[in-house]
Amino acid sequence: xxxxxxxxxxxxxxxxxxxxxxxxxxxxxxxxxxxxxxxxxxxxxxxxxxxxxxxxxxxxxxxxxxxxxxxxxxxxxxxxxxxxxxxxxxxxxxxxxxxxxxxxxxxxxxxxxxxxxxxxxxxxxxxxxxxxxxxxxxxxxxxxxxxxxxxxxxxxxxxxxxxxxxxxxxxxxxxxxxxxxxxxxxxxxxxxxxxxxxxxxxxxxxxxxxxxxxxxxxxxxxxxxxxxxxxxxxxxxxxxxxxxxxxxxxxxxxxxxxxxxxxxxxxxxxxxxxxxxxxxxxxxxxxxxxxxx
Length: 293
Ligand code: CO
Hints:
- The protein has a five-stranded antiparallel β-sheet. Strands 1-3-4 form a three-stranded antiparallel β-sheet. It has a three-stranded antiparallel β-sheet with strand order 2-14-10, with no helix packed on it.
- The chain contains six helices and 17 strands.
- It is globular and about 55 Å long.
- A hairpin with a 2-residue loop joins strand 6 and strand 7.
- By secondary structure, it is an alpha+beta fold.
- The protein binds cobalt (II) ion.
- Cobalt (II) ion binds at residues 92, 152, 183, 185, 277.
């Protein structure tokens, strides 16, 4: 394990998130912000660990604009999630901006839940204790924590490993230990606090390899191989290969059963959602926020 690479990836993730937030103004296109942020990640010496995502309103996560997306920021609640890797070592962080100006408390709820979780993290703390702090903080604001989304461990070329860090008191008595690196990501919802997978995924991941005879698919697979089994988005492929070839290849990979799809995750009752996230390192006493600029 390379702590040096991971720390650097986290630093770049924090700088890239800050940059994305600076671009996020009313009138800005979310596709432009994502593309510019992904370029910035590369300029800073990293690679996206997953496509830059801007999920709006009742969408909690996994929205990544296609090449022809024309969505513009105006009065939404926008959650920006940025992941960076260096040699597979990942930094993951997120922030929410409220352009509606009516949801300041919602944004504060997930941010404060994250801060309160970070305050209690130390070796020996249980996952349930972290979940409980997140839950009570968000409920104090009158909102619901999203229960079926959670923080996670980060492994080389693997964004979601154990432990799964709950956003509510799930009674998990697993303890954190010194040296653990985890992403904490509370989501606060004005609705159900449960998300479902909607349709029209734009984020994908290759799950394993299989030979294919189709020439176009083979060519596109070569490009996908460069992502090292990390998630990628359709936009990255259509930019290189166009819509028709990309659609054909994705269909083909799906038929071969080697493509995972990550459709947008939407609140069951269409409630607005905010998110805050940091990657932290558990230290002898407390923890260190790795995704700080
Ligand atoms: Co995460």
